[in-house]
Amino acid sequence: MNAPIVDSSMTRPANCSDEEWALRWQLAQCYHLVDFMGWSEAIFNHISARLPGPAHHYLVNPFGLTYTEVTPANLLKVDLNGNKLDASPYEANPAGFALHSAVHGARPDVQCVLHTHTTEVSAIVQKQQAFDHNNFYGAQLHGRVGFHTFEGITLFEDEKARMIASLGDKHILVLRNHGIAVAERSIPTAFFLLWTVQRAAEIQCRAGTLPGEDTILPTETRQRCADLTAMLVADRGFAVTFFDAMVRKMQSECGPGW
């Protein structure tokens, strides 16, 4: 695995507050983690983080860079229409605006949105049932999933309202025949949720290749698992502890530049 390309200067953008700079570092680490875990998709897909304040500005990756090339300095700051708010030689991927700007504009409880379509997740969301909630991780997702019908590549303004209606008050959006989006109140919490979704998909795919009937979990057991997980992540320290541990693992294997 190649080391990330890091801006030689790592120049902090003008008028960037301490809070924004810390968020940029955490978001860049999240990009690197998603690649480290094998969940990135060449130069495609997006992770966004809403900046503090009433303006609904958010940070997103420059289009054309791999996830390992994302740095705190080169993340783009954009508004809900995708307009760049700081000078940058890069542009953003227009496919990211419809989903990310829609969620950031409509859900003030959400700071981070992650979108992936790994092989396992894409296979699961192609199925009519999607997640069956019968494994340890899938049970934790019970009652947390919204469903959005595939309309083609997500580029158009008119799809925003339908995606928001599909997400509702949930934190996971199954993009049927496409992939997944998770939306949570912080970058670490969103990463933990994505990890849970990915593990649920991997186990469900593997179980589907084995002979014999599945053991179906009762609805009350699924709900208890989902409720207990919600209690865990309500403690902000839990998700941060998990995120920081994964960053340390990544850096120990790939070097401190990650």
Short descriptors:
about 260 residues, alpha+beta, L-fuculose-1-phosphate Aldolase, about 40% helix, globular, disordered N terminus
Characterization of this structure:
- 42% of the residues lie in helices and 12% in strands.
- The chain has a seven-stranded mixed sheet with strand order 3-2-1-4-7-6-5, with helices on both faces.
- It has a single domain (18-254), classed as 3-Layer(aba) Sandwich (L-fuculose-1-phosphate Aldolase), CATH 3.40.225.
- The radius of gyration is 18 Å and the shape is globular.
- Strand 5, helix 5 and strand 6 (172-175) form a beta-alpha-beta unit.
- Helix 1 crosses helix 8, helix 2 packs across helix 5 (159-167) and helix 6 (187-207) crosses helix 8 (236-254).
- The model is unreliable at 1-9 (pLDDT under 50).
- By secondary structure, it is an alpha+beta fold.
The whole-angstrom Rg is 18 Å
At the first level of CATH, the class is Alpha Beta
- Overall mean confidence score, pLDDT: 92
Uncertain runs with pLDDT below 50, 5 residues or more?
1-9
Order of helices and strands: HEEEHEHHEHEEHHH
- Tell me how many strands there are: 7
Describe the largest sheet: 7 strands, mixed
**CATH fold node name:** L-fuculose-1-phosphate Aldolase
Number of helices, counting only DSSP H or I runs of 4 residues or more: 8
Largest sheet strand order: 3-2-1-4-7-6-5
Silhouette: globular
Number of domains: 1
What is the CATH-assigned architecture? Answer: 3-Layer(aba) Sandwich
Beta-sheet strand percentage? 5-15%
Terminus-to-terminus distance: 11 Å
User: Given the helix and strand composition, which structural class is it?
Assistant: alpha+beta
Helix content: 40-55%
Name of the CATH superfamily: Class II aldolase/adducin N-terminal domain
InterPro entries: Aldolase-II_Adducin_sf, Aldolase_II/adducin_N, Aldolase_II/adducin_N_sf
Family: Belongs to the aldolase class II family.
GO molecular function, one term: actin filament binding
Pfam families: Aldolase_II
